[in-house]
Design a protein that fits this description.
CATH topology of the largest domain: Rossmann fold
Shape: globular
Largest sheet: 5 strands, parallel
CATH architecture of the largest domain: 3-Layer(aba) Sandwich
Distance between the termini: 38 Å
CATH class of the largest domain: Alpha Beta
Strand content: 5-15%
Number of strands: 11
Number of helices: 14
């Protein structure tokens, strides 16, 4: 399948940043993309997966256990029998979750008869097993059963899928980048589920004529397979992939000052955000954005973007919406950090 180049997507800068920070730090908890139909949500998600660096997985493992992550029970058994696990590189795939998926199809199922009769754990892998090391994509997430969404969000944070049936337990690693898309006109997610998504980005069709023209021009160039177009943007996607690899290496060395930590906690508290996910997500996102930029400390742009992506879905109103009042409020928030302003 030919995919539209991620670097060739026009505008939607916050959407692209929301995807990229989850590629650098998946513990952020995924991103929910809200927007009307025809705004390129699915195109962006599939293009994004194509620029992700290849993963290293255990050869012959059905769960695709990743290097550096505690392996599944089956890989542990292989090691206990004296086998030395070999690794191979595989591209990151998009795993789609169908809307009619039952809980068993998502988490997997246990053969209880075999467990009781033979004492063995026979596990039929679900979507979460296939998603390990990949991008789990849920289109129209607002139409999915709430309980299934709750399970997915739990695993997205913990990185492990645990299935319990009649006293029998089976677990396996399930680390993935979670991306959900929805059209608000078709219904909303419950506030409790909205809060579980790390980030939320609102997108809309471009209104500016020049940008609309650029979008159409690039789509037509892509569909006609113009060699110059494909070569130019393929090279830029490769460069972006290298930046992501460098950002992952740099992330552990990004530091946050105590003043920034104090200010984030105070601002989130003043805005009336329930719980602590908002504070944690802002700081994680700011660090990931700094790593992508290749700087040692998050700057004003990193903090502004982190606020814009981490808080709107946790509040009744978006305090940083692109209006004069919203920009004023955001500037007031950023002044609390003592960071030097950059020209916008």
């Amino acid at each position: 399948m030919r995919l539209f180049p991620f670097s060739a997507i026009v505008g939607q800068e916050l959407l692209k940043k929301g995807l990229l920070v989850n590629a650098v730090d998946p513990s952020i908890g995924g991103v929910l993309i809200r927007g009307e139909k025809g705004t390129g949500k699915t195109t962006a998600v599939r293009a994004f997966a194509a620029v992700l660096p290849a993963k290293e997985t255990v050869s012959g493992c059905r769960f695709g256990c990743l290097r550096g992550v505690p392996p599944c029970g089956e890989c542990q058994s292989r090691e206990a029998q004296g086998e030395s696990l070999a690794y191979e590189e595989r591209p990151v795939e998009v795993v789609d979750l169908p809307l009619n998926a039952s809980e068993d199809r998502v988490v997997g199922s246990l053969d209880l008869e075999a467990a009781l009769r033979e004492g063995s754990k026979k596990f039929e892998m679900g979507v979460l097993g296939k998603a390990n090391g990949n991008l789990l994509y849920i289109d129209e997430v607002n139409l999915l059963d709430d309980h299934v969404v709750d399970v997915l969000l739990d695993v997205a944070v913990s990185g492990r899928n645990v299935v319990m049936r009649e006293g029998v337990t089976y677990s396996h690693p399930s680390r993935f980048i979670l991306v959900g898309t929805m059209n608000p006109e078709e219904g909303e997610l419950r506030p409790q589920l909205l809060d579980r998504f790390g980030l939320c980005v609102e997108i809309a069709g471009e209104k500016e004529i020049a940008l609309r023209k650029q979008i159409v021009d690039r789509v037509l160039s892509f569909e006609s397979e113009e060699p110059g177009f494909l070569k130019e943007w393929a090279e830029k996607d490769v460069a972006l992939r290298e930046r992501l690899l460098a950002a992952r290496r740099k992330l552990p060395f990004i530091r946050l000052s105590d003043d920034v930590l104090q200010a984030v906690v105070e601002v989130v508290s003043e805005l009336g955000v329930a719980g602590h996910r908002g504070d944690i997500t802002i700081l994680k996102s700011a660090k990931a954005l700094a790593a992508i930029k290749g700087i040692d400390l998050p700057d004003e742009e990193c903090l502004a973007d982190a606020f814009r992506m981490s808080l709107p879905h946790r509040l009744k109103e978006d305090p940083f919406e692109e209006t004069a009042t919203g920009r004023k409020r955001l500037d007031a928030v950023l002044n609390r950090f003592g960071v030097q302003k950059q020209s916008r």
